[in-house]
Design brief:
The protein is of the alpha/beta class. It folds into two domains: 104 residues, no CATH class; 152 residues, 2-enoyl-CoA Hydratase, Chain A, domain 1. Strand 5, helix 8 and strand 6 form a beta-alpha-beta unit. Helix 4 packs across helix 5.
């Protein structure tokens, strides 16, 4: 709808209930390109209400930016950019609504409180109908051989600690085993002030293709999942030493594969690196700290776009947005490190 119409509707005390997935309003799209003149007091009320709307809000903008555009969850330049967002929201409207509410909530919080809110939201959605449907559609995973190699290679050289994700055949999918090994490595650095630099990278063709999908849905219940995440989450452990961490990315950096690196002081990527946040389409939200780390690097609206669209972001755009700090072809990619 046009900006003037939504500003008028948001003056009503009943607007927030109507603009909800439970009222069959899965997304609110507002055309902010027109030359409409709207009263300042009405705009002020609408700006506050946009931060309270239960569903995702998207503004289509033009050269003239409306005064409340910064209150929307996502901003796009044309209708053509809406297609991937609409597809994801149609598949998982509850997860999409939770995602934008979480991003709004976390905007002013410190890391610990933001991660707590993310874990609670993620755990709630794990028990929801959209995630259950996604899990049912995947079917049971076939048993796979267990590797005798460590999930994370740890090497200490003077003041430098190298942590190398070491499941190349699985594209370094973040399993429970790898999660615990990373937490142990980060806590080692936190407890030892002589570790002045921590370098994280991955073996094989990808840095990290996200969470290990074979382990999704294997915990007994969402409450237990939250309790485990609260004490064993690698995001909190990494954030505690972030000023000493450099992450070297290559290939696929999906889900946790970019959510965790985004906490680090320095993120360097090879030209073949790409980035994606597909969790909403699975009936979830980012669960490895992405609702805290990604907005701090690219802003809330771009983070919302990445999550709601699930689009693949190339490394040049990631650099322009601030998701990575440097592109370095000399890093190489896919090299197995012993």
């Amino acid at each position: 709808m046009p900006l003037g119409e939504i500003v008028e509707r948001l003056q009503s005390s009943y607007a927030l209930e109507a603009l909800s997935p439970l009222a069959r309003c899965a997304i609110l799209i507002v055309d902010c390109r027109g030359p409409e003149r709207v009263a300042a007091d009405a705009l002020a009320i609408a700006g506050v209400r946009l931060g309270e709307v239960a569903c995702p809000t998207v503004a289509i903008v033009g050269p003239a930016v409306a005064p409340i555009v910064d209150r929307f969850d996502v901003v796009v330049p044309s209708e053509a950019d809406l297609a991937p967002i609409l597809a994801v929201v149609a598949r998982a409207p509850l997860a999409a609504a939770t995602l934008v509410q979480l991003l709004r909530h976390n905007a002013g919080l410190d890391t610990d409180r933001g991660l707590l809110a993310e874990s609670l939201a993620y755990s709630t959605l794990q028990g929801g109908p959209e995630c259950r449907a996604w899990l049912a559609g995947r079917g049971l995973a076939a048993p796979r051989a267990q590797s005798a190699e460590p999930a994370v290679l740890v090497n200490r050289r003077g003041g430098r600690l190298d942590l190398v994700l070491n499941r190349p055949a699985r594209r370094n999918a973040l399993s429970v085993e790898m999660r615990d090994a990373l937490v142990a490595g980060f806590r080692l650095a936190e407890s030892d002030a002589t570790v002045t630099e921590v370098v994280v990278r991955g073996n094989g063709p990808a840095f990290c293709a996200g969470g290990d999908l074979d382990e999704f849905g294997t915990l007994p219940d969402p409450a237990t999942a939250h309790a485990i995440r609260a004490i064993r989450g690698p995001a909190r452990a990494l954030a505690a030493i972030a000023d000493r961490v450099r992450v070297e990315l290559h290939g696929a950096c999906i889900g946790a594969g970019i959510e965790l690196p985004a906490f680090a002081r320095r993120v360097v990527a090879t030209p073949d690196a790409f980035f994606q946040l597909p969790e909403v389409s699975m009936g979830l939200v980012p669960g490895a700290g992405g609702t805290v780390s990604i907005p701090r690097r690219v802003g809330r609206q771009r983070a919302g776009y990445l999550c709601l669209s699930g689009v693949r972001l190339d490394v040049e755009t990631a650099l322009a947005w601030g998701l990575v700090d440097e592109i370095d072809a000399a890093l190489g990619s896919g090299t197995v490190v012993g």
